[in-house]
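Section 3.1: Structural characterization of target chains.
Under the original work plan, the team committed to producing a structural model for every single-chain target entering the pipeline before any wet-lab resources were allocated. The record below documents one such target. The sequence was received from the expression subgroup and is listed exactly as submitted; it comprises 335 residues.
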Amino acid sequence: MVLIQRLLLLPVLLLGIAAVSFGLSRATGVDPVIAIVGERAMEDPAVVAAARAQWGLDRPVAVQFLRHVANAAQGDFGTSFRTRRPVGTDLAERLPATLELVLAATLLGTLVGAALALLSARWPHGLLDQAVRGFASAGVSIPVFLAGLLFLWVFASWLDWLPGPGRLDARLTPPPVWTGLLLVDAALAMDWAVWRDAARRLVLPAAALGWGIAALVARLLRATLIEELARFHIVAARSRGLSEGRLLLDHALPNAMVPALTLISLSFATLVAGAVLTETVFAWPGVGAYALESAPTLDYPAIMAVTMLGGVALALSGVVADAGQAWLDPRLRDR
């Protein structure tokens, strides 16, 4: 029932996101025509009037907003002031790179965080537990861009274990684009040299972006596991001779994963926002880098589209979290 309510409220939420992104783009007080024609051409009233008419900026703000919403509902986000291309085309080229990075960061962060939480809950209050708690504290304290620079210096420059910035070595030929996900396209083309290079180059940005989620998962899951292990039914199972490993994995972990799944789902949306800094540090050609390139040029169509994309990711992650909770806990399905 809760999942159905979320789905019914999704269009209203998306409309609110569109209103906020449109309002923020107009709240700067800077005339968007400057980004179109340049400051020198602003001195010519005829050029300014022609630009306003061409881009629909001569219409009332309410009409501009309704037109923006209607076009966005059809997948038309307008034309970029900077690239002079449809924003949808730009995003279609950039989104797979960001999606690949965010998925890798989510998977890596979840696996590392869950593994550390299990170890910490298995031997609480010991040296290993203290190390895990220190890792979690550092993960939530260190900004993603600083983590990226640190990883580049240690693993790419000093130890020379992994390559530096960039999604693919310039000497390699990219595979044919089927999905835009470089690892998937390289595997489909059976180009394993490209696949290996792309995988190695994905490790550092995914680790920098996923460190935060690994820390949050480790902290939350550790506390939940320790609480679950103290429950009566697990204490009774322990008295019957069940091993600590089975108690932890078969009895405590499924219940502890319910709140952790919500955290992971919502963190996926926040990783999209964190990708802006990560992609900048690692020269990753994704949506985050596109947004950062668009901001100084006052490219309002591109900025609004990226803002709406982030809002959609946040809304959908909430729906996925509710669905996952209902799957893990059948009691939630009837609410």
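The domain at 91-334 is CATH 1.10.3720.10 (MetI-like fold).
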